[in-house]
Amino acid sequence: MLASLLAYWAERGCVVMQPYHTELAAGTMNPATFLRCLGPQEWRTAYVEPVIRPGDGRYGENPFRFQHYYQLQVILKPTPDDVLEQYWGSLEALGIDLTRHDPRLVEDDWEQPTLGAWGLGWEVWLDGMEITQFTYFQQLGGMDVDVVPAEITYGTERLAMFLQGKDSALELEWAPGITWGDVYRESERQFSTYNFEAASVDMLMRHFDDHEAECRRLLELGLPLPAYDHVLKCSHTFNLLDARGATSVTERAAYIGRVRTLARNVAKAYVESLDAHPAV
Amino acid sequence: MPTLLFEIGSEELPASAVVAGARRLPELVKAQLGAEPARVYAGPRRLAVRVDGLAEKTPDEWAKGPPVDLREKAAAGFAKRHGVSVDELEERDGFLGVTVAGKPLADVLPERLDAILRGLAFPKTMRWDASGLRYPRPVRWLLARLDADAVEGFGTTTFGHRFTAGAIEVGSADDYERALREANVEPDASARERTIRGGLDALGEWSDPLGKLAEVVQLVEWPRVQDATFDERYLALPERVVITAMQSHQRYFPLGENRFAFVANGGDPETVREGNERVLTGRLEDATFTFERDVARGIDELVRGLPSITFFAEAGSFADKTERLVKLVDELGGGEASREAARLAKADQAAELVREFPDLEGYIGAEYARLAGYPDAVAKAIEEQYLPDSASGPLPETDAGKILAAAERIDNLQIAFGLGHKPTGSRDPYGLRRAAIGLLRLATEGALPVDRTTAFADAELRDFVEERLEGLLDVPVEFVRAARKSGVRDLGAVAALARFLAALDDDRLEPVHTVFTRASRIAGSQGNGRVDASLLTEDAEVQLARAVESEEARIAREVEEGDFESAFDAAATLAPVVERFFDEVLVMAEDAAVRTNRLRLLSELRSAVGALGDFSEIPR
Fold it and tell me: Which of A177, A195, A213 is at the close of a domain?
């Protein structure tokens, strides 16, 4: 399924990329989306992204909630006029007969305050099941986008559940005779324990401060790309602290504010660097 | 008289945008084309109008030029701009000008239709390409037909059902509805609603507790109502949880027991039913899982999670809020049940189930309190804390519920005003007007004592809340304003006083009104100082001082006890004494000390009667 989707989008001019090398809470945070969607340059990409959301783990006991799962992310910048037709085509490429099912676009406004980002779009439903988030970005890093990109984020587990007719992601057939649960159940259990109970709060707080300082230093050196990695590290470190229940309300708001400031500064520096060294 | 059909085709609009657009279209069409649309079509992928009987030509217009006496200087330029010679200019009311002939409709339509498109206003819009046009979702086609003619710059093609029909040619304005219906699109929202209601009725008793029907009408173009079932084991969940799982996200309609209805937009009925059943099963399974985890943690453990949940930026956590509620409940005279309910009121904010289904707040907290063995009065109060949830919604039934509901609203109002988030114009993002009205209804209909002087130390907040009384009570506003300025401390009693004053016969009101307004007018800004008995020389003023002294305490006491009848009678006894005073005594005496003393006496009289309200608010 993943291979078919990537091949489908590669045929439509997307650069197929591999996952980013640090923890992301959403495929949107991958610099191939967050940074490349800034500035006026055209850009198309498709990639699978493992998303890490420490607070969403349920020890592998809940059939729908995990702290680690996969999104398949597509960016089309600028948005082609037939973007929806292209998207429906991707489902047909998976063998889904859209006339037998009830596909629907249900309003879903997307907002990510820590990235200073928002957009309008939909949840895509198939017979009532949400399989994709579709967003037209309007702002990123607190700036209006120059060119409006379309972001298509397939929930790969949901889509596979739909295709395989399964009621639980854990029961998905990953490979012949091997289920998703066989591969990830134990890791969900251990990471849930780590995220909620075992992570060292002192270390995380230290790391957050370090990554924040490093991000600022790199920005001063005119290196927004490495600086962005440290925004991602800060964001993930904060998510862990949050899952660990280690932050009071005021601290929590302060951490979110710090990540937002970093993300905005990096986005600004990145756009300025584009003028000097156009990316593509 | 030609008929126009104009359609804006877009990607799927939010239901609220469809409604907003359809509401705005008639006035825009009227402004641009001079006629109201005969039909407005609204749905997820299209907003369209049909306008009958348009004039073939726009009316001739008088273009006003320079004043006649500037003919020499300005006429030539004006004439040139309008492509006529100076001799052709006409004279009207002292001005030169020219009659500009109306244009054929077809010539002006492109710009008029464009103005309609750009004139539509929506709460939330976006950009999608370089055109700069803003709309709730991308516009993908524009169709216009003037009878059977095309309109320059606009297409003649629409799109039918997204998956079962493609592009279709609309031959003429009259052909629009038929062409779309053949392509599996019902463009008329009310026809879709009828289809859905009819389909639901055919399935038996159906309900829509969270009010989703109007939205569903705008989510489908070719509705088909189907029924489906879920496993009976989920009926073990609290009923509201099951209903919320059906309605909040999936917009299904409960049919009772383990049956539900959904509205499809197409597809193979059996396939679509199976898919929807699987989705609801997933949601119910998830709800069961979270419910059991919450119950296993227990409500007291949930309370311990509140310090880490933000209530409102700058207003602390839900633990802080809980502390404030407990204190407010005490101030409102609450007993053990309401204090316990206040302590547990926000526990469900830490519940996983509420994070999943915010609609369940209050209800599920009550359920968890019951399961943990708390008395029913406590659970009931937790459940009722958000009532009334609308201007006419039911009030809490229990005393503890009323007290907690009032505390909840007072806290929200105090916090929002304290942080400077006052509603402005039509903007009221925190629902403070609703909170104020809810509180007033608790105090009036609910007969809950609320001391307005302690609940609203902030004068601005107090005014904000009390101003809502003017709309809430079925009493002319001047009586409410008079009562607001009385010495009454209890919010509900202010309302009762307003009603009492409004119900008074003119014959009864008049003398007291006169006493107050005369005293008030003459005393002016004179402050309350002690009346010096030794400076009272004339009998009429001695009598008045005595009367004021004895009646002032009585009026105040009766007002305090809510016996406005007796208080008013007491005030009325002052009338003849005051009349004699004004007949016999010159207030503005030569001697300054005597004068001030008399003004003080009148000021005191004003305060005494003013305990019943500021009668000068009531025009005579």
Answer: A195
Q: Are residues A165 and A232 in the same domain?
A: no
In this predicted model, what pLDDT tens digit does every residue of B247-301 receive, in sequence order? 988 999 999 999 999 999 999 999 999 999 999 998 898 889 889 989 999 999 9
Residues B419 and A229: their CA atoms lie apart, in Å, by 37
Is residue A276 pLDDT above 80, yes or no? no
- Which residues of chain A lie closer than 8 angstroms to B281, CB-CB? 167
- Do residues A180 and A82 share a domain? yes
Residues A191 and A224 in one domain: no
**Is A128 within 8 Å of B276 when comparing Cβ atoms?**
yes
Same domain, A162 and A28: yes
Chain A closest-CA separation from residue B477 CA (Å): 43
pLDDT of A247 strictly over 80: no
- Is residue A280 over pLDDT 60? no
Q: In this predicted structure, what is the pLDDT of residue B593?
A: 87
Contact predicate B70/B111, CB 8 Å: no
- Look up the pTM and report it: 0.81
The amino acid occupying position A137 is F
- Which tokens belong to B578? 């005051």
Q: Identify residue A88 by its one-letter amino acid code.
A: W
Neighboring chain A residues of B127 at a CB cutoff of 8 Å: 138, 148
**B interface test, pick of A96, A104, A107 with most B CB neighbours within 10 Å:** A107
Kindly give, in sequence order, each residue whose CB lies less than 8 Å from that of residue B609, ignoring residues fewer than 6 positions away: B512, B515, B516, B519, B555, B571, B574, B615
Q: Shortest CB distance from B289 goes to which of A62, A100, A106?
A: A62
Closest residue in A to B218 (Cα–Cα): A106
Query: Across the interface, do A101 and B271 touch by the CB < 8 Å criterion?
Result: yes
Mean pLDDT of B228-256: 95
Q: What's the rounded mean pLDDT across residues A67-78?
A: 97
Inter-chain contact A249–B310, Cβ cutoff 8 Å? yes
B451, β-bridge pairs? B490
A234 and A124, same domain (yes or no): no
Distance CA B97, CA B75 (A): 9
Domain boundary among A144, A163, A195: A195
Per the structure, the count of domains in chain A is 2
Shared domain check, A186 and A208: no
Q: A27 and A91: one domain?
A: yes
- DSSP string of A116-174? TEEEEEEEEEETTEEEEEEEEEEEETTEE-SSPPEEEEEEHHHHHHHHHT-S-GGG-EE
**pLDDT(A279) > 70:** no
With a pLDDT cut of 90, the percent of chain B lying above it is 71
pLDDT level of residue B455 (50, 70, 90 thresholds): confident
Residues B373-388: what's their mean pLDDT? 95
State the CATH number of the domain containing residue A42: 3.30.930.10
- C-beta atoms of A167 and B250 within 8 A: no
Q: How do strand B4-10 and strand B46-51 relate by DSSP bridges?
A: antiparallel
CA distance B196 to chain A (A): 16
Q: Provide, as residue numbers in chain B, all residues whose Cβ is less than 8 Å from the Cβ of A99.
A: 163-164, 266-268
Pair A206, A164 in one domain: no
Of A88, A99, A120, the CB nearest to B137: A120
Is the link from the previous residue into B388 a cis peptide, with omega within 30 of 0? Answer: yes
* Greater pLDDT, B530 or B340: B340
Chain A residues inside the 8 Å CB shell of B138: 79, 136
User: What interface predicted TM-score (ipTM) does this complex get?
Assistant: 0.93
pLDDT for residue A249: 65
A-facing residues of B in 227-256 (CB < 8 A) are 250
Mean pLDDT value of segment B597-606: 91
The domain in which residue A110 lies consists of 2-195
CATH of the domain at A224: 1.20.58.180
Cis amide prior to A78 (ω within 30 degrees): yes
